[in-house]
């Protein structure tokens, strides 16, 4: 690796780096890598072009955006539903895409005319990868959308039900030949798949794929840590502790509001199950629900639904969370917390999740915890999306047909410690250990800047 920089022209020039991403989750992943770039001794000048949405993650880092930024009706999920593509076309998708392609090529051309060295980091799926390939600059790709776990596990190919799903692996990989072609071009200098299994498959086609981990698992630490007890006290604490359930409704309105209504049906079913003679856990019978609410949602709308189901406002949080403005409610001896600032704490404290989200569900599972998924009406969290996510996450994600089934699944999980251990190991293996963003930034810095 130390000799790579000698092959790159204009090595003395300060790198001009453009990042392309296509979605809120992808923006966050890209921003985590760019933040590590910014912390380096001689960081590049960084620019961004969010292809979907407004790029708030970049704004927080003070990274300027080039070209047009605009939110499409689908929120970037046209691949899940052809009707969403029609809505986006009517909303100006084609013109926006053309403008963005022109913006990327214009940026590369202007930097080249100034004698600067340029590079592009594409984060997401084939769309930013395609933009990067046709830009004329050297590029790298962080593949967040696809994993070989969608079609296989360590034992071999998965059984598939639908005919369309069988085409996902028609060429021997979840990545199709045209995607692998984009990754195997000379100017593509690094590909960072999301897991070791995908890296291993891509390397069969002489693609410069490196298993440096999954940036989705970075920066999820909580400011708090669970108390430690000796063995006898720990056993007593476990009996007395509440069951903590994290609620993940997704981040995009109006879908997230519809998802929340479904999740609240599951919450009511769990509360009803605890009022019976058999509690889910042999504990004090109380629960804590942690609603991890995206900043772009109106928390008051969600709070209205909570209160309509008998939850009364309360003043103190039952768990330490980093949000003094959290909305807290109580019903019997259980608590409900809505927070838009303590996302990490919601992941940290949760024993299990009720999930209707993409990235958030994967991050929760990656911490070694089980999630119960309820398919919604989309555009993102549809039955097809939930089924694909269950293949990606394996034993860690349990999909139910309706919210009334959640208590039965939760009870089965909590009464089977061996299964929970398998789920923990599975989630960590499929999502990887933290620290990938720094490893990726350090590798690219050595390739492009040294």
Largest sheet: 8 strands, mixed
Number of helices: 17
Average pLDDT works out at 87
Radius of gyration: 23 Å
Portion in strands: 15-25%
Content-based structural category: alpha/beta
Helix content: 40-55%
List keywords for this structure.
450 residues; alpha/beta; eight-stranded mixed β-sheet; 17% strand; globular; disordered N terminus
What does this 3D model show about the protein?
The chain has 17 helices and 15 strands. The protein has 450 residues and is α/β, with parallel strands linked by helices. β14, α14 and β15 form a beta-alpha-beta unit. The protein is globular, with a radius of gyration of 23 Å.
């Amino acid at each position: 690796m130390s000799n790579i920089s000698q092959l790159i022209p204009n090595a003395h020039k300060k790198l001009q780096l453009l990042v392309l991403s296509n979605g809120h989750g992808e923006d966050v992943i890209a921003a985590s890598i760019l933040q590590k770039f910014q912390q380096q001794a001689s960081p590049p000048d960084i620019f961004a072009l969010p292809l979907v949405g407004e790029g708030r993650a970049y704004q927080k880092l003070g990274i300027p955006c080039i070209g047009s930024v605009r939110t499409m009706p689908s929120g970037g999920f046209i691949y899940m539903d052809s009707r969403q593509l029609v809505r986006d076309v009517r909303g100006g998708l084609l013109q926006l895409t053309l403008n963005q392609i022109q913006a990327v090529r214009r940026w590369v051309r202007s930097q080249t005319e100034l004698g600067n060295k340029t590079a592009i980091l594409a984060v997401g799926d084939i769309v930013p990868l395609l933009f990067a390939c046709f830009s004329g600059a050297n590029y790298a790709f962080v593949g967040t959308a696809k994993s070989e776990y969608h079609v296989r596990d360590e034992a071999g190919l998965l059984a598939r039900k639908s005919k369309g799903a069988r085409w996902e692996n028609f060429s021997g990989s979840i990545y199709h030949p045209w995607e692998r072609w984009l990754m195997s071009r000379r100017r593509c200098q690094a590909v960072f798949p999301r897991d070791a299994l995908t890296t291993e498959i891509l390397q069969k086609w002489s693609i410069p794929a490196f298993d440096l981990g999954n940036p989705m698992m970075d920066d999820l630490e909580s400011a708090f840590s669970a108390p430690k007890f000796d063995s006898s006290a720990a056993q007593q604490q476990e009996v007395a502790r509440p069951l903590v359930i994290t609620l993940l409704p997704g981040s995009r309105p109006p879908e997230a509001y519809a998802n929340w209504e479904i999740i609240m049906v599951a919450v009511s079913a769990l509360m009803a199950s605890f009022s019976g003679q058999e509690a889910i856990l042999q504990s004090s019978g109380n629960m804590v629900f942690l609603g991890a609410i995206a900043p772009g949602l109106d928390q008051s709308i969600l709070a209205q639904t909570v209160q309509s189901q008998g939850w009364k406002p309360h003043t103190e949080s039952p768990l330490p969370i980093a949000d003094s403005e959290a909305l807290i409610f109580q019903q019997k001896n259980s608590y409900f917390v809505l927070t838009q600032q303590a996302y990490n704490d919601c992941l940290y404290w949760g024993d299990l999740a009720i999930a209707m989200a993409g990235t958030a569900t994967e991050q929760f599972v990656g911490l070694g915890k089980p999630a119960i998924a309820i398919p919604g009406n989309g555009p993102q969290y549809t039955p097809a999306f939930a089924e694909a996510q269950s293949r990606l996450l394996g034993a860690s994600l349990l999909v139910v047909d309706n919210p009334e089934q959640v208590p039965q699944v939760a009870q089965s999980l909590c009464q089977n410690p061996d299964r929970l251990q398998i789920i923990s190991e599975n989630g960590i293996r499929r999502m990887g250990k933290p620290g990938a963003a720094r490893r990726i930034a350090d590798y690219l810095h050595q390739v492009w800047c040294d």
